[in-house]
Amino acid sequence: MTDMRNAYVVTSGEYSDYRIRGVFFDEPSARRYADSLRDSDIEVEEYPARGPEFVPGRDISLWTHIDAQTGDVKREWSSISDRDATSHDGQCSTNVYTTGMTLGTALHYTVHTTADVTQEERARKAHAERVAKKRAEVMGL
Predict the structure, then answer these.
(1) What is the pLDDT of residues 14-54, one digit of tens each?
(2) Residue among 4, 125, 124, 119 at smallest CA distance from 55
(3) What's phi and psi for 139, nearest 5 deg?
(4) Rounded CA gap, 16 and 74, in Å?
(5) Kind of pairing, strands 105-116 and 92-102?
(6) CA nearest 49: which of 1, 2, 119, 14?
(7) Residue 102 DSSP label
């Protein structure tokens, strides 16, 4: 037996004014959210959730450790994890930070990218660009 999940989409407006206000996997949450909007044209629509294109609530994380003295890549890894679907669907962010210090001198830098799993190609490109930029900076290029 197939476990069919439904998505409850909170919408407002019509035609060019049509907007998706929120997406939920349970109807009571969708109705509570719709009621909280206090708008007369809010509706809750039900759709089957299916296919790889509909993967809310999953992130890909990419990490790279760079030697702060030479610019060499010391370690790279990635993971995919579940999260609250409302956190940041569709977003991608990359940060660089110092992860080791000795007597005020950086030992290595970490480049960390987190993105909605539907943005994996974008995330990998942004991550690679930031790693290349940091390595060039360390090597004085």
Answers:
(1) 888 888 888 888 899 999 999 998 888 899 999 887 655 54
(2) 119
(3) -85, 0
(4) 51
(5) antiparallel
(6) 2
(7) E
Confidence (pTM): 0.56
Note whether 12 and 43 are within 8 A (CB).
Answer: yes
Query: Which structure tokens are listed for 5?
Result: 């999940």
Among candidate residues 86, 14, 98, the one with its CA nearest the CA of residue 56: 86
C-alpha gyration radius of the chain: 21
Render the burial of 94-114: b for 16+ CB within 10 Å, e for the rest. bebeeeeeeeeebebbbbbbb
Average pLDDT, the chain: 84
The neighbour count for residue 22, using CB atoms within 10 Å, is 17
- Residue entry with tokens 């009621």: 35
The residue written with tokens 């987190």 in the block is 114
DSSP string, 87-98: S-TT-EEEEEEE
